[in-house]
Design brief:
192 residues; alpha/beta; Maf protein; seven-stranded mixed β-sheet; 32% helix; elongated; EC 3.6.1.9; dTTP/UTP pyrophosphatase; dTTP diphosphatase activity; UTP diphosphatase activity; Maf-like
């Protein structure tokens, strides 16, 4: 995966996803997808992340004319069957982090790849356990700016790592792009 010429469009503005693709040597350009990320009534979390990733890749596939492969992903934090999304403000982030405090939650990352008129997808499931958090820690974490724009109001690759007692699954999946699943999909269209 060391070809320096982009043959892939990443349908995401996430710097973490760009870094992860760089990590495995996949040259890419970026064209973020602009789609509403709203769960449908009664939609299970697994179906939701798959749908959002697929809608992102389709939107960019239809918007570009280069014929390059399009990769999209969606990552969500789920606790007690509830999709947390990204915090809207401090109160929302504090509510999320207080709920995650001392508990185990799931992180779902769906990956969607479109190339040559075909569509492939994969789903990564990880389990993350937080230690107990104090209100002061939550407020200080919010003040750092890191929780803003992050699913579940935390970043495993940043300061949020100090809250994590245990992880089972894909570290890169919790970051936002599960590299094993991504590499497997990219292998189907000649990245390797």
């Amino acid at each position: 995966m060391n070809d320096p010429t982009p043959r892939l469009i990443l349908a995401s503005a996430s710097p973490r996803r760009r870094e992860l693709l760089d990590q495995i040597g996949v040259a890419h350009s970026v064209l973020p997808a602009d789609i509403p990320e709203i769960p449908r009534p009664g939609e299970p979390p697994e179906a939701y992340v798959r749908r959002i990733a697929a809608e992102k890749s389709l939107a960019v596939w239809e918007a570009q004319s280069s014929g390059l492969a399009v990769l999209a992903a969606d990552t969500e934090v789920v606790l007690d069957g509830e999709i947390f999304g990204k915090p809207q403000n401090f109160e929302h982030a504090a509510w999320m982090l207080a709920r995650l405090s001392g508990r185990e939650h799931r992180v779902l990352s769906a990956v969607s790849l479109r190339a040559e008129g075909q569509h492939w997808e994969a789903l990564s499931l990880s389990t993350v356990e937080f230690r107990a958090l104090t209100p002061a820690e939550i407020a200080a974490y919010w003040a750092s700016g890191e929780p803003q724009g992050k699913a579940g109001a935390y970043a495993i690759q940043g300061r949020g790592a100090r809250f994590i007692r245990h992880i089972a699954g894909s570290y890169s999946g919790v970051m936002g792009l599960p590299l094993y699943e991504t590499a497997e999909l990219l292998g189907r269209v000649g990245f390797g």
